[in-house]
# Entry
Amino acid sequence: MKTYTCFDVSIENKIAHIVLSRPEKMNAMNREFWRELPEIVREIDQGALARVIVISSTGKHFTAGMDLSVFTSGPDTAGQETGRLRANLMQTVLKLQQTFGCLDEARMPVLMAVQGGCIVGGVDFASACDLRYCSTDAFFCIHEINIGMTSDVGTFPRLPHLMPQGLVRELAYTGRRLFADEAKSCGLVNAVFDTQAEMMEAVMGIARDIAARSPLAVHGSKEMINYARDHSIADGLKHIAVWQTGMFQPADMTESFTAKAEKREPAFDDLLPVRDAI
# Structure
């Protein structure tokens, strides 16, 4: 993969590792961040380059959130009509939402490993991942309320599905920090580790476990969980019935049983790349 401004990307043993790489700027989300992340994730997903994605960071904090340059370095809008400016702002917000939406839409699971602060857009970022882990020094903060605005890039549609709604409201209305132990107890993160190194070792181990499973079955599981989140139970049951009718792969099940009988690890085919329709 090519070189990026905000990320280091590597793919090894079917695991794609995306690392935020601007520790001197506390990994603030500048304009390049919002362009590069969906490009990276979609290349991995559409090319079927990996079976699982791990996202981690560098430096003291995972991310300080939105870089002010996103707001201050745009085109000069002086004298332009207010209605048009508001319509343009709406399109900008929708585009920012798509940056994290690509994590939800990726066929493979996305794991996040958080150290230090994960604030403002960082919470939007985390809420779009499948699994979250953190070190003991981590904290999460819906900081937008502290600067007089409402979080708008994904926190509120997703976070109430991950933790109690009353707690989401408290964090949203007060802007207080949610520290690692409370994040674990409320279900936002799966586990807390003493150090970043211990966290990364464990998260990569989980990623290896996922990568060893049938990619089609994992993809189907993510599809079903996300669909159930957004629909009724009846709709979810019908959706999985339709999915199994079209996507069930007897070869993967046969390989699982054969590998177990032969006392070896199963070998599954990767997902196919997504081909352009035109």
In short: The longest helix spans residues 82-105.
